[in-house]
Amino acid sequence: MLNKKVLITDAPDRFAVLTAMWILASNDENPIMTYKSIQYRLDLPENIDIRELVYSRGELFRRGLQQDRLDEWKLKLTQKPKNRPSWIRALGSDDKQLKAIQGLSVDDIFRSQFRALEGAPKSPIEIIDWGLQHIDRLRKASMETKEQYAKSKEVKFVLLISAINAIISLLAFFIR
User: Fold this and answer.
1) What percent of the chain has pLDDT over 90?
2) Which of 99, 120, 144, 146 could be disulfide-bonded to 115 (CB atoms 3.0-4.6 Å)?
3) Residue 6: pLDDT band with limits 50, 70, 90
């Protein structure tokens, strides 16, 4: 069976995941996030496309990491097992963990736009709040768009029924 990626298109789910990602990327001890760590920490199914969410919100998240910073981070993870992300520790044996660490590439990483520098501190509450308000505005706009679409479908349906009634009335008049 194919493991097809699923875009999170249902507005409440999409924005709930986006909110959780924003908080983690802004407030985690380590500014470097991996797509797998988000999947693991939020207990999301493997087929949810976290990468698509990051790519769609460039104002919140910065994709990738410089190769030298990634190499340095991987070296730290290799040397200090207690500092490994929970999704890596959950793999079990040290061999599996080391293989996962070595397999990380710059394409597996993202960060908050506001924590781009090495050793960046947690974001101040004002930045976190700005992001949360921004996500809420996006959610509201998405819901309004869906409501407008639904209303336009209702209007089209009513117009179609009215047109059918008019045609039936005309046909009934001419058939008599």
Assistant:
1) 65
2) 120
3) low
Give the contacts of 77 (CB within 8 A, at least 6 positions apart). 83, 84, 85, 88, 101
Domains identified in the chain, total number = 1
Is residue 6 in some structural domain? no
**Orientation angle between helical segments 125-175 and 11-27, nearest 10 degrees:** 170
Whole-prediction pTM value?
A: 0.75
pLDDT higher than 70, residue 26: yes
Query: Is 2 a domain residue?
Result: no
C-alpha 69/C-alpha 163 separation (Å) is 66
Report if residue 5 sits inside a domain: no
DSSP single-letter state for residue 103: H
Domain span holding position 73:
11-175
| DSSP symbols for 74-102 | HHHHHH-GGGS-HHHHTT-SHHHHHHHHH
pLDDT for 145 equals 83
Cα separation, 112 vs 43, in Å, equals: 20
Is residue 4 situated within a structural domain? no
Residue count of the chain, please give it. Answer: 176
Rounded Cα distance between 132 and 123, Å, is 13
